[in-house]
Amino acid sequence: MFRLPDSWVWDFWTVQDGPTHHLFFLYASRALHDPDRRHLRASIGHAVSTDLRTWQRVADALVHGEAGEFDATATWTGSVVRGPDGTWHLFYTGTTVHTDGLLQQIGVATSTDLLRWDKQPGPLLRADPRWYETLGQSFWRDEHFRDPWVFADPHGDGWHMFVTARARHGAVDDRGVVGYARSTDLATWDVLPPLTAPGTGFGQLEVLQLVRVDGRWVLIFNCLATEFAAARAEAGGPGGVWAARADSPVGPFDIAHATRLTDERLYVGKLMQDRTGAWVMLAFRNDGPDGFVGSLTDPMPVRWDAGRLVVEAAGALIQPD
User: Fold this and answer.
1) How many folded domains does the chain comprise?
2) Is the CB of residue 244 less than 8 Å from the CB of residue 255?
3) DSSP, res 234
4) b/e map of 59-70 (b: 16 or more CB within 10 Å)?
5) Residue spans of alpha helices (H) in 102-245
6) Of 290, 288, 168, 154, which Cα lies nearest the Cα of 210?
């Protein structure tokens, strides 16, 4: 388990370089007392491990920018990929508070060693109003365009980016979609229409991840019950970590029939392979007996069961700090 004694830890992502797993995570001081205040104080920390269980914290990756910059308020969730020239790219969410809400945009920092990161001029991308909801268009006080998940096209045709976004049409409580952008060089990106349609029962699809587990593509996303559309909320049941069938790396994705991997005790599930090659999931501990927990689990095995992805070791959901 990864826990900081003085800070909450929540959203995270990993990348592997040789035998070493690099963990990038959002954190904020517990001196804030109220965990709901953590979001506007978030920085991106960094730790390393060879077994996904024992972590050594190293120097932080990124902090918020200066006044007037696109990430002046906080740095949020992202992903890391290695370019053809060996340069590492950390795509992340930059946030800025405006009078009418919170603007979310996407930027990038680069590194040669995964340890020192240099922000590049940004932002790279923001919500295109042709397809995506922007500030002031609904009851949400955010312009959703965050959590970039970047991966190379399996056939060598450039790079894909999935983004947490909301469509500009449809029932206001049911506009969560997989936002989408493409690039040929990791530097210049084209924002394109979403890969899914609104109306699947989710107000937002947070912290997306696409993986191929034992030969099957699956899209992982996260949504709490408080962010369900009305029909899904009326059906009952908690939110949590979700898995949706994917027919290819760019869909179609069966969001409406996504299955829940965990309840809300865990959030932001990420799938990866351990040193034996087995598929496991890490997540952050969200709801506990005393409220928000703010630490990461140990790896939990995942497997296919009758066509459905399931997480084993349920006891890990409630292990004590």
Assistant:
1) 1
2) yes
3) H
4) eebbebbeeebb
5) 230-235
6) 154
- Phi and psi of 209, rounded to 5°? -150, 130
For residue 32, being part of any structural domain is answered with yes
- C-alpha 103/C-alpha 96 separation (Å) is 5
The dihedral formed by the CA atoms of 81, 148, 29 and 114, expressed in degrees to the nearest 10? 10
Burial of 299 per CB tally in 10 Å (0-12, 13-18, 19+): buried
| Tokens (6 digits) for 111 | 């590194």
Q: Residue 200 and residue 228: Cα distance in Å, rounded? A: 9
| DSSP string across 75-118 | EEEEEEEE-TTS-EEEEEEEEEEETTEEEEEEEEEEESSSSS-E
Q: Could you write out the DSSP letters of every residue in 38-77?
A: GGGG-EEEEEEESSSSS-EEEEEEE----TTSTTSSEEEE
- pLDDT for 120 equals 97
Rg (CA), the chain: 18
Evaluate whether residue 2 is within a structural domain. Answer: no
**Which CATH number belongs to the domain containing residue 229 in this structure?**
2.115.10.20
| Domain hosting residue 210, numbered range | 7-318
Which structure tokens are listed for 72? 């002046």
For residue 99, what pLDDT band results from cuts at 50, 70 and 90? confident
User: Please, where are the H alpha helices in the chain?
Assistant: 230-235
Residues forming beta bridges with residue 8, ordered by sequence position: 28
pLDDT band at 321 (very low <50, low <70, confident <90, very high): very low
The Cα 144–Cα 137 span in angstroms is: 11
